[in-house]
Each structure stands twice: as structure tokens, then as C-alpha cells.
Please model this.
Amino acid sequence: MTESESAAERWLSYRKEIKVLDATIRDGGLMNDSKFDDDVVRAVYEANVAAGVDYMEIGYINSQTQFPKKDFGPWRHCREQDLRRIVGDNDTSLKLSAMADAEKSDYETDILPKDQSVLDMIRVACYIHQIPTAIRMVEDAHNKGYETCVNIMAGSTLAERELDEALEMLAETPVNVIYVVDSFGFLYSEQIEALVEKHLAVLKGTGKEVGIHCHNNRQLAFANTIQAIIKGANYLDASFAGLGRAAGNCQLELLLSFLHNPNYHLRPVLACIQEHIEPMREKLMWGYDYPYMVTGIRNEHPRSGMAFNASKDRGDIVKFYDSMIAEE
Model:
């Protein structure tokens, strides 16, 4: 076999270890306080099942004290009765995930033992200074019988020494997957490559996987996800039409059309986007936009761009740019 034939075969095949996780309802809930109607959540669930997606992150499992029910929808808390109202016993191949934020989740009481829940995976989101809390959360979820992930947020801001120490600590825990997370949509492909390689090197021999979660502030979420795949990341986050906080995420429809796994099917995702997701765009206003581009360039949280887009000045992108530059 020639070198060109070998390369062609590699790109026409697929890596069985790859798992796709849909974060539409969880990440998209940051644009509407997790107040999705049941019919939308059910439609996304059914589309994921039909599309052969591996995991669906159905929401957060965070504190009702910090996120009161009067202000937030049920997908900020993922109580069992709400989950089962949508998925029943989830007698499908699709696994269900919920995310617990470090210091924002009453995880010891709110996360039930696995044999009492339809959830399969608990993902812990934390900032670098919250690693000790994240480790306790992982151990709690593992002991209850769940698969576990850690998403270290704001990956573009991490000092190398701090990340090295965090990865070494996490390598000693029962966590299954550790994610590279470009929370601010700042990173380029070379930086994604370096981070994935660092994660893989520290985790070599542990059996743990590396995941990738990208935001789209600079129109690079899909491209950076591809780079992470090439370097060896096997857990891939995406969402329907990219629905997620601010500029949103890697688009699931693009990712499924890129992967060559015959078990993935694009049409159910497109049908759900057409009927349920795109009709929400005008109200939720996610996706690539100039204020989010600016915050991405500046390696900042998009909260200022979100506030600007909700103000009377929306559309005056020069005013937003000038206001951000004036802060320097």
C-alpha cells in the first residue's frame, strides 16, 4: 500500500473509540436560564437516539439554593422526576449526562446513587483553583456508580505549571475523561494540539480519555475539534446548530458529517434543528457575533458581549469595540 493510499484509508475509516456528546440543552440553557419546554428537550433526546449520538447532556445538576426554581428551569437541577418525564427509563443506547459545577452543586445530596437514576455520567466543571473540590465531586460520583468527567474551564488562561499540577492530581483519581475546554473561544489549532498532547502525555497508561469542548467566538470551534481528534481526543462535545452560551459550540451537524462512523445519522439532527432549534434563534441570540468575536480576541468571558447584545445598543459593534479597548 502506498503512503497516499494509507492516508486515504485513514480518513475514510473511523475511530471506534470516539464518543460524541450533545450539550445542546445543558450549554444552551445558559442562554435562557435552562427554561426549555419539555417538547424541545424531548425532541433533542429523540433526535440524539435516532442519530446514534453516544451521550446527551440533558442539563446541570446544580443547587436549588443558588439557582432557585422560581428563576431557573428544571434543566438547571435535573431532578429525577423531570428526567423521567422526558426519557422514561431511557431504554436506548444513548447515555445521559448532567453537569455539576464546583461550588455550585449540592452534589452529596442531589446526585442519587446510579441505581436510582437514569443518568449515566456526571461531568464536573471547575476552574483551576477548584481542582480539590472537583476531585471530591468525582470521587463522590464514582462511588455512586457513575462515569465521570472533569472539564477544567477557561483553558486558554491556564498557567502551564498549574495545569501540570492539576492533571497530575486528576490522574490519581477515578475520573474517566478530562476535557480541554476553550471556554472563551480564544485558542488556535496549534494551541489546541499542544493542550491535547499535554493531557495525553500526563494520562498515558492510566486508561483515561481526553475530551474537547470548544466555543465558537472566532469561528474555530469545529476546526479546533477536528485538530483535537487528529491529536487523539476521543470525547467530542457539540450541540445542535451550535446552541450554547454566547457564540455557542461546535455544531453537531458539522461534526457528525465529518466523522465517518456509519452509526451516526445526520438527518434526525437536521430535522430537529429545523423544527425546534432554529425557531429559538431570534430570542436566544446564540452563535458567532461581533461582540463575541471581540471577547474571544481578548481572551475574556463573553458576559460583556451578552450584556451588550441584550441592550439598546445591540448592533453598534464599533461602540462595543471602543468600550472594550477603553478598558485597557
User: Anything to note?
Assistant: Residues 290-325 form one domain. The chain has two domains: 12-284, 290-325. The longest strand covers residues 95-101.
